[in-house]
């Protein structure tokens, strides 16, 4: 993948940006050359959304990313900046250019956060605003995304729109496989992708008849003839040399190789590193050169000697050319397809489409990344690189001699890489390429490889084994290659050669850069094994039948088949209908406004935070002198400048806004710099000199246990005399499990704009908790709360991460605004946001379980530890909820649990969807699975024998409804679990290294705030004389469809269509003291409050309606107005349940349960650890939905977050588990380059969801608004079924090795954990003694 962030392997990973180099690969040429300045054009000309743009060179910073011009100069805010490193796709735009040679227009989707503005000379740039508008007409892509529910928070939506739009411009009638590939560089955190994929399938000739929108809504056909034409001016425009120069830098785009060689500068091709250098590192470049218009460098052709590729040819163009080349091979040339395919295999999973569209082969080579996808292929195929300098001919360098060290290559000063020759493989040569990352799509490699062998008379006469990820450079394996020569092609030779390879390339020790030494070595051996088996197959030599699928590579992308089953129970004018999200159309057009989209305010200041670069240290001094001298700096503020309180915290104010004497975590805020421009603020922040005295750090739960570092709270629940019941139990077991944390990865990072106005402070912020933001801004400034107004329009994703952790940034901005009396904007960059805002709490759980021989659970004694970070935040509340989920859905007659929160030197962990529930749930399911393993029973047998029955009380005295067993029974039948279980057992018996696992697993999720006082809320409704309605409530719309549901409730109660209702932004001067939008309670609370207000108004209008039943609401309002009847109402809601005290185990903690069951099937590759979710069946009780489509969307999004939590999402902190991360407490996985959320490729191949009707039981549970139930968080537990399905597959693999006993398998189940748990001869060879019991490292 294409991000210059530090990968977990600690190898600087960039694939495309510097195709030429000098100074041993540094990318710099130190002296200036002489070129003719008169021939160069001096203005930048391009089209933007169909309109010509001309920019004078004096107004351009050549390194400035395109997105900065689009958002700041053109004021087109639809293009979103979410990561700044090309890793999420939110910034996607289309660039189109005219290919004079082909006489055709080419359209490319690109990451505008990486592509420099200067790159688009002579091109037509299209943003999401350029294809459709809610005020004009939506493009078919926009319309279908809105209809299918493909947006929730909407922040990622413009990027998806532009990727699909570009795909259609290139192929108006695509097939589903290629069209979905167009979106492989786009991520979404909300939707679970299925509705996006279905919207895309509606355009594809092979799938358009298989998908239907909710309620069969009509949509217009796609007509490519209606697309805007490419500007004629650009077709006629000749390519001429370009020079753009201002006071800081120059950009050259020469049109000849001679001119390029005469310029001494940084060469920029795809610019996929430059954008990162500019944004994150503040790097400046005096001179930059773009080679994209140099014919010699953009040529690609082939002859009998091989492929000849110019260094500036993009990866996408290489892929297209190779596909055409393969299709044109004659029968006598068919063997060449092996070399072609090996390159294509690597390109397929090379970054995302947006990157491949601009990344070049030269950049990939010269960057010399040790985990390059392509370089091992070039090594194995014996490629030749040609370097050249001014006045000389190109000279060849063998690929095997080119890479001289980490990020270093064999090039002289002032040389460039001009082109690459890849020879054809010989007819009897066999080639394969391999890659394993943390995620299949758009990811960097952990290990990558390519291998070539030639066999004659069943003997190996030639071998080339190339690897990446095992050394500072891409390498060959000469010792192993030499060993193979002359050896017979059989498995005995493999075993002997594998031992040689292990000694030659194997990694040893915990301090290996990037860690994962055992896994990376095992991968190398596994790839070699796959290759050897493929070689045997190719030569028709005997291979055991069970190894037939062992040669297969990554699971291929498949088009998802999905069904959603629910009963439409329409009540009144709106409730029960699948109304589209109120903001859906604006999401798709980019017209939905978020905080950072707000216009630049008069005299607005930009900011940069002063952050500590220590994990734990005393602050000895902080010197601002040099920073204050930076031109444009207005002020620098620290704890000494806080006029009010420097302490804040949601429950306990134990956290400093700005650290005063001691740094408690890496990245802790020490102050804020404000300046006229963001660049000046960042520069000043870097110049602040801070002296520290380092202190020992505590980073993990086990660190805290050893040091006895805990917050002074121990909570727990006890039912019956557990010791007595445990002593009676015929059987007992003890065990433990660790669960890693999770990053919220909301797409809109923490953002606040504070505007002072006379006595008041207006805080525009992205928060789930407007009230607490208001409170602590006032506290910081030492002013009354009524002088602070917090306003929240919409939030680009929250998932709990904006319930408290936005507050300090709003307060910091407010402090600067307080002193300067000027607006101040704070927006965190993605890497900073991830480093300092905290996430889901890692947990350690220990258990002792009593049970009988049938699997009946009798007693449970549990100890839970949460890693809370450096302050309380919400950790105790998270712990409490975990303690209340320790039964999953099982009746344990005697249960005792205790929990503590570890105080550590990492940022405070905080709320995250599920709020402790997932950690308690995993604990329960772990001990149930352990019992089943001990008794040699399927886990489903033990689960079913212990399921709650209707009316049973939980260990905290809450009644359970019949839906637990009903959802289990229905899911078991509809999923055909028993039949598939038998099929999987047969499949596993026939396949050695591909194993499938299936699980049937229930969940119950209690709904309410644990803190009883939070179960309240207000809403205000105004009816206007035209019959339109304005609603303001205390909830926050962050994608969950809250405003849509509230509008439906109000419209229904007042007898109008939903189009009559408008929801206004949340503002604390309208709705005071609002509870946060959290705990899945927002619809209950604010829908209930709005219902109360609407009923008041309906009652006031009832006499008029009785007199004229046919009157419109506007007519009724007019009559009431003339009778002086108020048309405004304040509604209030408070939950009816009594509340709960966890220390006494008294009361009722929930309003009701949202319940469900999942049947999940996966397949794993035991040689690599890769996995694929094959099928998921979900049956849920979500009451009687207000809006079934929105509820389905929440189910899908939550499921995929849960699946990510227990599989590919892994956080790596600088701790004793990761000694190669040199700075204690630093988050290494701070960005999409290293932290992997699920992509569209990770969703189930088959996905069936059923919402059960008629589930509400008023006798046992509180009935919510319109008989609906909360749905935001509960399905996340079902996503965790992926963990247990994978573990079943791992069990099958271990049984092949005679490993029948129970084994601990911590979460998340990354490819590393899966592979190392599937112990075999290869993993034993890689890690030595103890391979069977190895526990993969993790930050817990």
From TrEMBL:
<feature type="binding site">
    <location>
        <begin position="267"/>
        <end position="274"/>
    </location>
    <ligand>
        <name>FAD</name>
    </ligand>
</feature>
<keyword id="KW-0500">Molybdenum</keyword>
<feature type="binding site">
    <location>
        <position position="188"/>
    </location>
    <ligand>
        <name>[2Fe-2S] cluster 2</name>
    </ligand>
</feature>
<dbReference type="InterPro" id="IPR016208">
    <property type="entry name" value="Ald_Oxase/xanthine_DH-like"/>
</dbReference>
<comment type="similarity">
    <text>Belongs to the xanthine dehydrogenase family.</text>
</comment>
<dbReference type="InterPro" id="IPR002346">
    <property type="entry name" value="Mopterin_DH_FAD-bd"/>
</dbReference>
<feature type="binding site">
    <location>
        <position position="83"/>
    </location>
    <ligand>
        <name>[2Fe-2S] cluster 1</name>
    </ligand>
</feature>
<keyword id="KW-0479">Metal-binding</keyword>
<feature type="domain" description="2Fe-2S ferredoxin-type">
    <location>
        <begin position="42"/>
        <end position="131"/>
    </location>
</feature>
<keyword id="KW-0408">Iron</keyword>
<feature type="binding site">
    <location>
        <position position="913"/>
    </location>
    <ligand>
        <name>Mo-molybdopterin</name>
    </ligand>
</feature>
<dbReference type="Pfam" id="PF00111">
    <property type="entry name" value="Fer2"/>
</dbReference>
<dbReference type="GO" id="GO:0016491">
    <property type="term" value="F:oxidoreductase activity"/>
</dbReference>
<feature type="binding site">
    <location>
        <position position="915"/>
    </location>
    <ligand>
        <name>substrate</name>
    </ligand>
</feature>
<feature type="binding site">
    <location>
        <position position="153"/>
    </location>
    <ligand>
        <name>[2Fe-2S] cluster 2</name>
    </ligand>
</feature>
<keyword id="KW-0560">Oxidoreductase</keyword>
<feature type="binding site">
    <location>
        <position position="190"/>
    </location>
    <ligand>
        <name>[2Fe-2S] cluster 2</name>
    </ligand>
</feature>
<keyword id="KW-0274">FAD</keyword>
<dbReference type="InterPro" id="IPR000674">
    <property type="entry name" value="Ald_Oxase/Xan_DH_a/b"/>
</dbReference>
<dbReference type="InterPro" id="IPR016166">
    <property type="entry name" value="FAD-bd_PCMH"/>
</dbReference>
<dbReference type="InterPro" id="IPR046867">
    <property type="entry name" value="AldOxase/xan_DH_MoCoBD2"/>
</dbReference>
<feature type="binding site">
    <location>
        <position position="768"/>
    </location>
    <ligand>
        <name>Mo-molybdopterin</name>
    </ligand>
</feature>
<dbReference type="InterPro" id="IPR037165">
    <property type="entry name" value="AldOxase/xan_DH_Mopterin-bd_sf"/>
</dbReference>
<dbReference type="Pfam" id="PF20256">
    <property type="entry name" value="MoCoBD_2"/>
</dbReference>
<dbReference type="InterPro" id="IPR001041">
    <property type="entry name" value="2Fe-2S_ferredoxin-type"/>
</dbReference>
<dbReference type="Pfam" id="PF03450">
    <property type="entry name" value="CO_deh_flav_C"/>
</dbReference>
<dbReference type="Pfam" id="PF02738">
    <property type="entry name" value="MoCoBD_1"/>
</dbReference>
<feature type="binding site">
    <location>
        <position position="350"/>
    </location>
    <ligand>
        <name>FAD</name>
    </ligand>
</feature>
<feature type="binding site">
    <location>
        <position position="803"/>
    </location>
    <ligand>
        <name>substrate</name>
    </ligand>
</feature>
<dbReference type="InterPro" id="IPR036884">
    <property type="entry name" value="2Fe-2S-bd_dom_sf"/>
</dbReference>
<dbReference type="Pfam" id="PF01315">
    <property type="entry name" value="Ald_Xan_dh_C"/>
</dbReference>
<keyword id="KW-0411">Iron-sulfur</keyword>
<dbReference type="InterPro" id="IPR036318">
    <property type="entry name" value="FAD-bd_PCMH-like_sf"/>
</dbReference>
<feature type="binding site">
    <location>
        <position position="1079"/>
    </location>
    <ligand>
        <name>Mo-molybdopterin</name>
    </ligand>
</feature>
<keyword id="KW-0285">Flavoprotein</keyword>
<dbReference type="Pfam" id="PF00941">
    <property type="entry name" value="FAD_binding_5"/>
</dbReference>
<dbReference type="InterPro" id="IPR016169">
    <property type="entry name" value="FAD-bd_PCMH_sub2"/>
</dbReference>
<keyword id="KW-0001">2Fe-2S</keyword>
<dbReference type="InterPro" id="IPR006058">
    <property type="entry name" value="2Fe2S_fd_BS"/>
</dbReference>
<feature type="binding site">
    <location>
        <position position="88"/>
    </location>
    <ligand>
        <name>[2Fe-2S] cluster 1</name>
    </ligand>
</feature>
<feature type="binding site">
    <location>
        <position position="91"/>
    </location>
    <ligand>
        <name>[2Fe-2S] cluster 1</name>
    </ligand>
</feature>
<dbReference type="GO" id="GO:0005506">
    <property type="term" value="F:iron ion binding"/>
</dbReference>
């Amino acid at each position: 993948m294409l991000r210059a962030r530090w990968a977990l392997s600690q190898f600087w990973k960039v694939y495309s940006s510097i195709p030429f180099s000098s100074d041993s690969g540094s990318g710099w040429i130190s002296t200036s050359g002489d070129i003719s300045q008169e021939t160069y054009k001096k203005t930048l000309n391009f089209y933007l959304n169909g309109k010509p743009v001309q920019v004078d060179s004096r107004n351009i910073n050549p390194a400035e990313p395109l997105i900065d011009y689009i958002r700041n100069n053109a004021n087109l805010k639809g293009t979103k900046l979410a990561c700044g490193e090309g890793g999420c796709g939110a910034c996607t735009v289309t660039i189109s250019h005219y290919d004079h040679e082909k006489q055709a227009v080419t359209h490319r989707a690109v990451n505008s956060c990486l592509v420099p503005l200067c790159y688009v000379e002579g091109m037509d740039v299209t943003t999401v605003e350029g294809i459709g508008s809610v005020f004009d007409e939506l493009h078919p892509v926009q319309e279908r995304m809105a209809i299918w529910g493909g947006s929730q928070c909407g922040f990622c939506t413009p990027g998806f729109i532009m990727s699909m739009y570009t795909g259609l411009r290139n192929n108006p009638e695509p097939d589903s496989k290629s069209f979905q590939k167009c979106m492989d560089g786009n991520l979404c955190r909300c939707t679970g992708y299925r509705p996006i994929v279905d919207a895309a399938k509606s355009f594809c000739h092979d799938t358009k008849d298989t998908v239907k929108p909710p309620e069969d809504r009509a949509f217009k056909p796609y007509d490519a003839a209606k697309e805007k034409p490419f500007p004629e001016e650009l077709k006629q425009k000749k390519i001429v040399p370009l020079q753009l120069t201002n006071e800081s830098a120059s950009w050259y785009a020469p049109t000849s190789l001679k001119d390029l060689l005469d310029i001494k500068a940084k060469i920029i091709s795809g610019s996929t590193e430059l954008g990162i250098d500019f944004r994150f590192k503040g790097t400046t470049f005096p001179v930059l050169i773009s080679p994209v218009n140099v014919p010699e460098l953009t040529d690609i052709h082939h002859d009998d000697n091989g492929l000849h590729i110019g260094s500036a040819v993009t990866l996408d163009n290489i892929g297209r050319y190779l596909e055409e080349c393969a299709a044109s091979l004659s029968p006598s040339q068919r063997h060449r397809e092996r070399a072609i395919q090996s390159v294509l295999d690597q390109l397929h999973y090379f970054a995302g489409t947006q990157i491949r569209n601009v990344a070049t082969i030269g950049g990939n080579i010269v960057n010399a990344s040790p985990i390059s996808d392509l370089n091992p292929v070039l090594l194995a195929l014996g490629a030749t690189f040609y370097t050249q300098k001014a006045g000389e001919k190109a000279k060849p360098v063998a690929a095997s001699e080119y890479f001289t060290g980490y990020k270093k290559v064999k090039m002289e000063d002032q040389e460039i890489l001009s082109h690459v020759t890849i020879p054809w493989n010989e007819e009897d040569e066999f080639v394969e390429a391999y890659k394993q990352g943390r995620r299949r799509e758009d990811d960097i490699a952990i290990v990558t490889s390519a291998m070539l062998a030639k066999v004659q008379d069943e003997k190996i006469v030639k071998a080339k084994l190339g690897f990446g990820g095992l050394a500072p450079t891409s390498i060959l394996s000469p010792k192993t290659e030499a060993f193979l020569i002359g050896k017979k092609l059989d498995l005995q030779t493999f075993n002997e050669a594998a031992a040689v390879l292990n000694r030659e390339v194997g990694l040893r020790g915990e301090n290996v850069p990037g860690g994962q030494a055992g896994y990376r070595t095992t991968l190398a051996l596994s790839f070699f094994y796959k290759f050897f088996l493929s070689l045997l197959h190719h030569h028709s030599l005997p291979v055991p039948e069970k190894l037939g699928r062992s040669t297969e590579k990554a699971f291929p992308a498949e088009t998802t088949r999905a069904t959603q089953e629910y009963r439409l129970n329409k009540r009144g004018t709106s409730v029960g209908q699948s109304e589209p999200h109120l903001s859906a159309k604006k999401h798709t057009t980019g017209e939905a406004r978020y905080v950072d989209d707000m216009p630049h305010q008069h005299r607005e200041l930009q900011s940069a935070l002063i952050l500590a670069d220590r994990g734990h240290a005393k602050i000895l001094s902080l010197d601002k002198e040099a920073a204050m001298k930076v031109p444009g700096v207005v002020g620098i503020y620290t704890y000494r400048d806080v006029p009010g309180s420097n302490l804040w915290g949601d429950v306990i104010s134990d956290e400093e806004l700005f650290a005063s004497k001691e740094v408690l975590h890496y990245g802790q805020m020490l102050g804020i710099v404000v300046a006229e421009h963001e660049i000046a603020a960042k520069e000043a922040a870097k110049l602040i000199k801070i002296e520290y005295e380092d202190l020992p750090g505590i980073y993990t739960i086990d660190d805290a246990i050893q040091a006895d570092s805990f917050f002074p709270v121990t909570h727990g629940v006890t039912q019956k005399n557990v010791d007595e019941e445990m002593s009676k139990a015929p059987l007992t077991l003890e065990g433990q499990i660790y669960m890693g944390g999770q990053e919220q990865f909301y797409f809109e990072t923490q953002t606040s704009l504070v505007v002072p106005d006379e006595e008041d402070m207006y805080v525009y912020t992205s928060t789930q908790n407007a009230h607490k933001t208001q409170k602590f801004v006032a506290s910081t400034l030492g002013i009354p709360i009524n002088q602070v107004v917090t306003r929240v329009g919409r939030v680009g994703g929250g998932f709990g991460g904006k319930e408290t952790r936005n507050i300090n940034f709003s307060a910091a901005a407010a402090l600067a605004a307080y002193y300067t009396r000027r607006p101040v904007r704070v927006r965190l960059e993605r890497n900073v946001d991830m480093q300092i805002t905290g996430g889901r709490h890692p947990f350690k759980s220990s258990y002792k379980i009593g049970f009988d021989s049938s699997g009946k659970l009798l007693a449970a004694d549990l100890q839970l530890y949460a890693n809370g970070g450096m302050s309380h935040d919400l950790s105790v509340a998270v712990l409490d909820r975990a303690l209340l989920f320790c039964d999953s859905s099982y009746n344990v007659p005697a249960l005792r649990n205790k929990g503590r929160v570890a105080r550590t030197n990492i940022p405070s962990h905080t709320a995250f969807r599920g709020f402790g529930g997932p950690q308690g749930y995993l604990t329960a399911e772990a001990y149930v699975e352990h019992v089943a393993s001990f008794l040699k029973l399927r886990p489903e047998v033990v689960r079913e024998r212990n399921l709650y029955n209707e009316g049973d009380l939980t260990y905290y005295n809450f009644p359970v409804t019949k839906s637990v067993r009903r959802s289990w029974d229905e899911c078991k039948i509809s999923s055909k679990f028993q039949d598939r279980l038998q099929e999987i057992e047969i499949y596993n018996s026939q396949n050695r290294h591909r194993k499938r696992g299936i699980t049937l697993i229930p969940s119950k999720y209690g709904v309410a705030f644990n803190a009883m006082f939070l179960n309240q809320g207000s809403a205000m409704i105004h009816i206007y004389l035209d019959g339109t309605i304005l609603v303001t409530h205390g909830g926050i719309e962050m994608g969950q469809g809250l405003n849509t549901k509230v509008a439906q409730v109000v419209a229904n109660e007042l007898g109008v269509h939903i189009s009559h209702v408008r929801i206004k932004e949340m503002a604390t001067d309208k709705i005071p003291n609002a509870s946060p939008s959290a705990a899945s309670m927002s619809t209950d609370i604010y829908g209930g409050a709005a219902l109360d207000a609407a009923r008041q108004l309906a009652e006031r209008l009832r006499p008029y309606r009785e007199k004229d039943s046919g009157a419109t609401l506007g007519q009724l309002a007019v009559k009431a107005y003339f009778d002086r009847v108020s048309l405004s109402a304040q509604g209030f809601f408070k939950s009816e349940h009594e509340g709960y005290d966890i220390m006494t185990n008294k009361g009722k903690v929930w309003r009701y349960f949202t319940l469900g069951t999942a049947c999940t099937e996966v397949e794993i590759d035991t040689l690599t650890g890769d996995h694929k979710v094959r099928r998921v069946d979900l049956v849920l009780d979500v009451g009687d939905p207000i809006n079934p489509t929105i509820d389905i969307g929440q189910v899908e999004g939550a499921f995929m977050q849960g699946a990510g939590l227990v599989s590919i999402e892994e956080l790596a902190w600088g701790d004793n588990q990761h000694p190669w991360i040199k700075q204690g407490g630093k988050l290494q996985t701070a960005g999409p380059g290293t932290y992997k959320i699920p992509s569209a490729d990770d969703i189930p191949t088959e996905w069936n969801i059923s919402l059960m009707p008629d589930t509400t039981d008023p006798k046992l549970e509180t009935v919510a608004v319109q008989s609906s139930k909360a749905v935001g968080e509960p399905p996340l537990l079902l996503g965790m079924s992926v963990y247990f399905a994978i573990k079943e597959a791992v069990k099958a693999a271990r049984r092949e090795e005679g490993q029948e006993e129970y084994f601990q398998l911590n979460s998340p189940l990354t490819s590393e954990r899966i592979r190392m748990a599937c112990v075999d001869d290869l993993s034993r060879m890689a890690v030595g003694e103890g391979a069977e019991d190895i526990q993969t490292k993790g930050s817990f």
